[in-house]
Amino acid sequence: MTDDAHKARERLKADMARLAAGDRSALEDIYRATRVKLFGICLRILGDRKEAEDALQDVYVNLWQRADRYDAERASPISWLATFARNRAVDRLRRGKVRGGAVPIEHAAALADEAPLAEELLIDAERSTRIHHCIETLEDNQRENIKGAFFGGSTYAELANAAGVPLGTMKSWIRRGLLKLKTCLEAGE
């Protein structure tokens, strides 16, 4: 486990302990850290966005009521929450009020969860924020052409034609921009 993943897991454990102690703000922190993964679990089982949203709401309402049942010695917080979400979704299936698209109840238990862990999502979000911050520090011609090349899929030749500059100039702008971007990203680590 990376250092960032370990920190994210420890933050989530601390948030779970705060919630169990009655700290309402902890629920919001837990929600932000876990909503994507838990929604993915509910959606895969229920096959309907509205049903998954309802199940996810049930998860957090029940979490608020039962946070004191979490035991950090027995499971990681995200594993416990993922099991909690899966159980809420399966409960909805068993009640039989789920719309079409849901997996058959007998397949729900074995449904694999291939979504990234909440810790990985947090790390990715932090990296994305850092990258976008660093991109905004570049000169306009570097920023726009790096975005065009790496996010927009344009070739250097296409960018050069669009900007009305020689290919060598475009390559220089992007190369210098990437060097500045690298320096900025390394400074933020």
- The total beta strand count reads 0
- Summed up, the domain count is 2
Q: Which word captures the global form?
A: elongated
Low-confidence stretches: none
Structural class: mainly alpha
Average pLDDT metric: 81
Compute the number of helices.
9
For this structure, the CATH topology of the largest domain is Rna Polymerase Sigma Factor, Chain: A
> What is the name of the CATH superfamily of the largest domain?
RNA polymerase sigma factor, region 2, helix turn helix motif
Q: Topology as H/E string?
A: HHHHHHHHH
Oligomer: single chain
Profile the largest sheet. none
Under the CATH scheme, which class of the largest domain? Answer: Mainly Alpha
Brief sketch in words of this structure:
It comes from Altererythrobacter arenosus. This is Sigma-70 family RNA polymerase sigma factor. Helices cover 75% and strands 0% of the residues.
